[in-house]
Amino acid sequence: MTQLQSIDRLSLNQITTDKWSLKEAVDGCLRAEVPWIALWRHKIEEIGLKDSKRIIQDAGIKVSSICRGGMFPAATELERQKRIDDNRRAIDEAAELGTDVLVLVCGPAPDKDLVAARKMVADGIEQLVPYAKERGVKLGIEPLHPMYAAERSVIVSLAHANDIADQYAPDEVGVIVDVFHVWWDPDLFRQITRAKGRILGYHVSDWIVPTPDLLMGRGMMGDGVINLRPIRLAVEEAGYNGPIEVEIFNQQIWDTPGDEVLALMKERYIQHV
Amino acid sequence: MTQLQSIDRLSLNQITTDKWSLKEAVDGCLRAEVPWIALWRHKIEEIGLKDSKRIIQDAGIKVSSICRGGMFPAATELERQKRIDDNRRAIDEAAELGTDVLVLVCGPAPDKDLVAARKMVADGIEQLVPYAKERGVKLGIEPLHPMYAAERSVIVSLAHANDIADQYAPDEVGVIVDVFHVWWDPDLFRQITRAKGRILGYHVSDWIVPTPDLLMGRGMMGDGVINLRPIRLAVEEAGYNGPIEVEIFNQQIWDTPGDEVLALMKERYIQHV
């Protein structure tokens, strides 16, 4: 199977080096010649949008996505509207920082009603689309692993993300394929094919065994059980040839010096992705 | 919505009171007037099949299921055959102990190949069906939560369990619906309807938030976010009116005296199931 020949498409999702500030992460990417970065909003907030933009532009690094918008469901109409307003700010930030992808982590239900919460997600996306489109930003629905259904996202399958995305033009709403969230799905390859033309991001990491923790249990590519290459090839077959983000929540990796993490990430990217 | 009016269908899945031996669990059920029990094979093994059978018969308690067969995928043909042999013993135990349901936890892949492992599951079930049928035992495929895909089961959705079960007569192979494993699934109610006539067991617990652990994070009904009643009603609508097992892996519950657990379980069963 076809190995990647360069790191041209490699993107550091900033959470992988969580201890680094935005500036440190950008500098780290420059040293390692990683051409892309995915920014988290809490890192942007630390220094403000203006400085973030300057750092990105001065470095000449490309931004693969902004993480994250979403979190639509809430108990009251007022609170839901606040979330929409926050999403509009996230769209502004994406446009300002030069990426056309806002990743949506759609949010958990405020109560036990999954059906209602899923409708709030659909309604929220519907409200955002015109605003995002005007600013040249696409909304990427990232289905999370079902183990996050209670705390992070009621959208937990690529099928469901596709169902929502299908209601819009491909330049309005698409999906993010993150292997950690979807690798288990017997319907995965069919849903990747179905997402043709609207995959807006591809995220890699690994599922380590034994899995130490729900949130912090991701591993570096090659350290776990996910057969990564067929998934990348399927995503490419479905028309996606954009940046590939490495997104790892793992305390051991967070505790490792960032330059070492990037070196390992580059090596594993070629070997396993 | 319709509340249950009695505990006639309530079954103690033995793992809920993990510190109790089989004899202690049966005695606990008698004291609490819980009419059903689901037995785990490691508890049967502690005292042997003969004594287990005597205890069950003397108590006049009904056995809702034996947990568990399955674990089909393995790296070698020899090992896979050993697993089949072990499943035959599990079928014998089920028949001997007076239940017609063997719960299948299908097992993880021995490598990174989920497709191959899923075929091993299908092949294993195919091999077992005639043996089970002769002994009056039905095979209940229990889809596990996708977070167990790497370590416990490559069958992680009710849709997939239905796909396999559909290839057999309803008195040969069916499915087990465990709320903890399937509650997140946007396709849940459709798949319950699809399973009509072949639901062989219904298991309840709850998904607690924050979720403390992958394995030990289940909660008592009512302590989490699962909207239990609509699921039971759907399962009944699909023709299942058999025992309802309470199956909880939770250290705090395991550390609570069994009689207290059963008292609480009975109360929550009426309130929430």
From TrEMBL, chains A, B:
<dbReference type="GO" id="GO:0016853">
    <property type="term" value="F:isomerase activity"/>
</dbReference>
<feature type="domain" description="Xylose isomerase-like TIM barrel">
    <location>
        <begin position="41"/>
        <end position="262"/>
    </location>
</feature>
<keyword id="KW-0413">Isomerase</keyword>
<dbReference type="InterPro" id="IPR036237">
    <property type="entry name" value="Xyl_isomerase-like_sf"/>
</dbReference>
<dbReference type="InterPro" id="IPR013022">
    <property type="entry name" value="Xyl_isomerase-like_TIM-brl"/>
</dbReference>
<protein>
    <submittedName>
        <fullName>Sugar phosphate isomerase/epimerase</fullName>
    </submittedName>
</protein>
<dbReference type="Pfam" id="PF01261">
    <property type="entry name" value="AP_endonuc_2"/>
</dbReference>
<dbReference type="InterPro" id="IPR050312">
    <property type="entry name" value="IolE/XylAMocC-like"/>
</dbReference>
